[in-house]
Structure formats: structure tokens, C-alpha cells
Records
---
Amino acid sequence: MERQLREDFLEAALALSRAGTTITAGALSSQLCMPQEEINDELRILEQSGEMVSQGGDGYALTPSGLRIAEQTERKHRLLQEFFSRVLGMDREAASKEACTLEHAVSEDAISRLGSFIEDAPCCRFRGRHRDGQETLAVQPEGAVVVVQGIRGCQRQERLMALGIVPGTTLNVLRNGRGRSLMIRVKGCEIAVSREIAGSVLVEPAP
């Protein structure tokens, strides 16, 4: 079994286990979008390598060695996704896809350094609250009154903070047409913000 497939299998098994779902060939087939016949073949290989074990019936469990690999892969994915999303300002879904591609190639040394960078670099930490699916300033209609919840992207954070756009700030959307910029009011001042920058500002409707 090639390394990438093996790590994907074990990571998927870990996700099922943490969700309280029995690890079965059918559950893995749904998780990995693979035919169940192929899943059964790979499960036999993982049993032979000592990374998974049958629990009788249809169920399987991760062995200590399989669990270690799964947790390492999951950690790589999480740190890469956080870097792409919080530091580079990428959409979280796109960041996750990039992480899926790179998690199998990045070394332990590189991922450890990346983890330290994200943790220790204050300017690159995500500022404010964030939840998946949260809307950005870029899609708000004219007349909307919103409150900033967070900002994605290290350089963008500093630029927006200089304009007074920080978590908790109320913004009035004055103009949002088809052009490249939006006109907003911040603390009594009218300013133009590029659509790209507005896409990094996460907002919610003002109460």
C-alpha cells in the first residue's frame, strides 16, 4: 500500500472513531469515496502490517501504531489548513483541500516548525471569532450594518487595524456594486476597501 493511501485510510478511521462511528468497510467507503471491494483489500493489508485489527463481525480498530500514524497525519492536515486559512487568508474549504495534498509530503521537522510559527507569531494569529460558513464583508448588500467578527491574513490584519477595522467594530456598507471596491463607513469615516481585502473580513449582522 502506498504511503498516501495508507495515511488517508488511517486518518479516516480515526475520524470515524472520534465521531463514535464503528469503523467498517462500508463507513470507510463513504468516507474515502472508494468502492467497498477496494476498501476490503486495503483493510487486509493494514491488518497484515499491524496498523488495524478486526474486532469481530464487520468492525475494525486502530492499533497503537496505526493510531500514531493517524494522529500525525491529522496534525499535519490541521496545521497546514490553519496556515493557509489564518496566515494566507484562504477560504477554509480551499485550505483543507491544499492541506490534503501536502500533508503526505511535508516532513515532521517542517510541520513542527510550522506549528511553532503559527503559535508564536502574534501578527499571524487569527484575530476574532470564526466559524465555517461565516459571511465576509465582500458579499454584504448596500445598506447593511454589520459587526466585524474576525480577520484572515497576517498582512491584511495590520492594514485593516490601521483603518480601525477590528473585531467588534460596526461597519455600514454604503456602496457595493460590480466594481473592485466597496464604500463603507467606519467610526464616522467613509473609506473604500478593495473587494479582495473585504473578502478577508468576517462579519455578522449588527444586533
Note: The first helix runs from residue 3 to 18.
---
Amino acid sequence: MTYRAQVVRVSVVSFVSIITAGRTQSSVGGCPGSEDCCIVHGTPGCDDFDCCDTVCLIDSFCCFLPWDSSCVSYAEDYCGNLCNASACPGTGDCCQAHGSPGCNDALCCDLVCTRNAACCSGQWSASCATLATQICDVCAPPIVCPMEGECCTRHEPTPGCNREACCDLVCNLDEFCCRGEWDLVCATKAQNNCPNICVCVMFADLDSNGIVNLRDFALFQSCFTGNVGTVGDECACADYDGNDRVGLADFKAFLEAMTP
């Protein structure tokens, strides 16, 4: 800051100090602002109310003119660990304790350090990892398909469905279907996006006579594609997992469906 700018700043601060004498912290104006307290920006105030008030009580200029490097310096010195978010992203797994500050997912790191600044100033402790599992999507348990329930019909309140490829496909489109419940939206996505399974009344009943026997097995063999190719409508009931192919997984399901 030049000498002239510093003189102007001191004059403004003195003037604001006079007109704001006796007011409460929040009445100096500008708090909270919309931008990060730890970064220079062109608007008054910053987004952490307590830090903003603290800085503006020290230097009211920060609440009436752009939040400059002096305001940031005050935030770094007087707002605890708020500005330690530079540890984000770190190098360690957000979902596991490790010896360094921060963690490797920037959003999760910021969320955790906003709740517990020590996670960005010291080691990422077990409490930091626990907090991450509670508030960060990155720590959500993996989705494992298949689950219970038909893919083509709603079955709240249970999540997922019983055809692996279709379950994976729908939950990639809408994670709620596997983390929440398989509602009408999920069933509709299955009907629109999973080949074959929603057009087949009864899996493995390729001759549509209501039972699965050796006649169906003969038809199943003619539908078998392995890991390549796609199946036509006549083979829809041979595609158990809904991946538009008839392979070994479908054959295993076929054997389990056969009438003794």
C-alpha cells in the first residue's frame, strides 16, 4: 500500500470510527458479505459473520470498501483457523485418519474444516474422518447391485433392484434409487433405459407358456451371445441382468428359474 493510500485509509477508518461509535458489531455494515474472508475480493465484508465483525471492528474500512489484502491479513491473524483452508485439498483420504492436514477431496475438506478447523491446521484425526463420513458424499458406502425388488415396478421403501446391470444403470442416472428407495421415478428409468427386462412377463419363459423347462432351454441356447452382440425382442426373456446380452450370468439365472 502506498503512503498516499495509507493516509486515505486511515482517514476513512477514523471517519467510520466516529460515525459508528457505540454501535453493535453487526451494525458497522457489510457483515456478512458474500465472498471468502481469506481471499481478496472487490466487495465489502466477507461470508463468515464472526470473522467479518472481528475484522471490521479492527478496521471499519473492510466493511465499507473492497476486502483487500489488509482485511485478509486481519482475518488470518484474528479469525482462528478459518483461513487454514489452504490445506484443502490435502493428500490423504478424507474418509480415513492420517497424519497430514486436510484431505484429497477439496469440497469434503472444506466442509469438514468449516466444522472443525483443527482438521486443516493439524493432522486429519479420526474425528475428522468420522465427520467426513457424516457430511461428505465421497465417503458414502459404495453402491452394490443387485438388491431386492423388481426393477420395473416401484417398491418403496427399499432401494435398488434385482437385475444387476439395470440396477447399476439406473443408480448411475439417479443415485437416490440405490441410496434412498426405488420409487416410481426409478421404475420409470428402468422401463426407459434397461433393454429387455421390462418387456418380459416372466424371465426364462421364452415360449410364454408359464413354465421354464427344456423347451425354453433350447430357445435360450439360440439366444446366447456371450460378451458380445445384442439380443432381439424374441430373446428378451433370456436377458436376466438387462445388459442387452445373454451370457453366463443369464445362464446361471436361467438354471435357477427352471421348473424341477
Note: The CA atoms of residues 44 and 67 lie 5 Å apart.
